[in-house]
């Protein structure tokens, strides 16, 4: 069973006739014998649309209740069970009622397609997920129901249902779209003429782009190389020179004259990397192209005219814009130039425009090979062998064997040796010196600079040619070796950057220090500004060089974004280094963005935590605080009632309930205030030397007598703590332990000294807490297990840990051997305290 086919009827706005077109298509298929059913269609009370539903089988919708209303939804299971050939599903971007199998209707459609059922559906352009911001800027309305663009792109067919904005407004006015009471509001708001025109343009452009993609795929699959002028595509050939901006603007003006014109700027780089344009100029030209709505492309090719024509034909371009050559007249001896070659080979299907500019014939460097990078020592050795070697060889041959027959081979060997050592220029020097010596000493007539035998002349020419050829090979090999080493270094650097991204390492200063070390600079800084005219600020810096306040003040600057630049001081870098530097600049911008996103995420988490605390506080106020208040109010009202004569026993019981409610209310309010103080950072402990055996007994005032057993030796060292905070923390921990301890089993509070700390352990024999829940019991408003609401708001342990940490201590939970829970409060011994006590107002004490 294959996958079903999806056909989407796309419209620019409600009311253009998408559902009508879908139903008409269903009738046409049904007449041809296709099994079509209406899975879900909304006719919105439009008579002509409702009439088209007659004659088609309809699957009853599934009714779901939501917020007191019964809403219809597509019965997906019924459609799958019916298994028609074609199912009609209206409103692809619709959000299903909670309780449905899928959250979105397009997910239901995916299930139908996976089951082999063809689907006809509808959607408006404003529901595309990628166009949400654009639609909101046009209409002022943010669409909540969206469909991913990829779902629509995967459709087998997309039919544009179009209608002129004026015609749609007439339909609205006649009541054919909305009910009469909604027409005036719709016409004056969403359905304004400008809104409809902009939405229509979005729909047309989206469909045109999809058609263009299909055309490109067809041309590629059928290997169509001829240009089909379906729309104007203008390719701009850039050299990285200053004339590029003139060419781009000229191409943009040409594109504006044609319907749907498109500008594609392309820079052809040589494959060997021996020549390169100014990276800064190319960045500026790229930004200009993108600002004008075009695209920038970087293509590698040794034959620039052929690569440019191949690119133009590959994108189905109709015109090419080139600048007049900047070469001087004498430089045309090397060839006709790129412009003339492209115009000659373009053929009848491509128009070539040669645009004049201010830099015509002002000169440009021809592509020449760079130095062999053989090193100074090898170059000096090459010159020594190439120049001094032939002279010494001539002297040696004249002194030892004047009639030696293979003198030319010896001189040639020296020339080859000079080429192997020093490259091209020492080999040329050796060939010249050697040929002169051969001519003077060994070529008849001897001791003259003339050559009488043509064979000897040919031999000398071959001698020089062999030397130059060998030197060229050596020079080329040296350049290739240098390029390979450089590319390896670049690949290592790029691998480092990629590894940073994968590992999530986002230290801006570390990255800038790596930039400085890699390129041997004095300093590296990332500069940014808010707008084009705003002052520059430093986002990060590494090194000890002079501070840079503007990119213009640096020795090297590379754009890192719209309003960011990477600035380095120390030396001027060659163009070949700027390529890698641009990758560092882009990574630095990403690192800065990540850092700011993390800061925003931290702030958001803090705000969320604050909101959670406030929400929980409100919940506590709404229930846990009102409960004791209600009890107090009821008891007081009963005592003040004149209709009842209360006995002394009843009066005492009511007074006891009032006192119990007041104590409970006082305890809850104290914890709430303590928690709010902890989260607002207003808890400032007054650290002093105190005795644990004096504070702990004071914390037991809120627990029943006999419920706690104390084991606190008087010989314990004094601790550095705040007496009030320690008493409050111990009271909360002990009260919590007593609450969960079995009846008749006292809670043990024991203290002991360990090295430079004192531990106070509160041991109960209650049900205990699982390991996975030990961390959660210290979170605010958390009650473990099935503790009832009356057990408190879950702040006691959170406040206790907060106070312990404020005093530089810890509070942890662990299992009690034999069952139960042990809370361990660890404090620093007074002798181990390093900082001086900070004088501060003692925090307000709450009665225990």
Brief descriptors of the model:
single chain; alpha/beta; five-stranded parallel β-sheet; 848 residues; six-stranded parallel β-sheet
What this model shows, in words?
- This protein is of the alpha/beta class and 848 residues long.
- It is 47% helix and 16% strand.
- It is built from 23 helices and 24 strands.
- The strands form six sheets. A six-stranded parallel beta sheet has the order 3-2-6-7-1-8, with helices on both faces.
- Strand 10 (262-269), helix 11 (279-291) and strand 11 form a beta-alpha-beta unit.
- The longest helix has 66 residues, at 575-640.
- The relative contact order is 0.04.
- The model is unreliable at 364-372, 786-791 and 832-848 (pLDDT under 50).
- Keywords: ATP-binding, Kinase, Membrane, Nucleotide-binding, Phosphoprotein, Transferase, Transmembrane, Transmembrane helix, Two-component regulatory system.
- This is histidine kinase.
- One of its GO terms (molecular function) is kinase activity.
Topology:
Elements: E1 6-11, H1 18-31, E2 36-40, H2 47-52, E3 57-58, E4 62-66, E5 69-73, H3 76-82, E6 86-89, H4 105-114, E7 118-124, H5 132-139, H6 149-153, E8 157-161, H7 165-173, H8 180-188, H9 193-221, E9 233-238, H10 244-257, E10 262-269, H11 279-291, E11 295-300, H12 304-314, E12 319-323, H13 338-345, E13 351-355, H14 376-400, H15 407-422, H16 424-442, H17 454-503, H18 508-519, E14 523-528, E15 537-543, E16 556-561, E17 564-569, H19 575-640, H20 648-680, E18 688-690, H21 692-695, E19 708-711, E20 719-721, H22 723-740, E21 747-754, E22 757-763, H23 796-806, E23 810-815, E24 821-828
Parallel strand pairs: 1-7, 1-8, 2-3, 2-6, 6-7, 9-10, 9-12, 10-11, 12-13, 19-21
Antiparallel strand pairs: 4-5, 14-15, 14-17, 16-17, 18-20, 21-22, 22-24, 23-24
Helix pairs in contact: 12-13, 14-15, 14-16, 15-16, 15-17, 16-17, 17-19, 18-19, 19-20, 20-23, 22-23
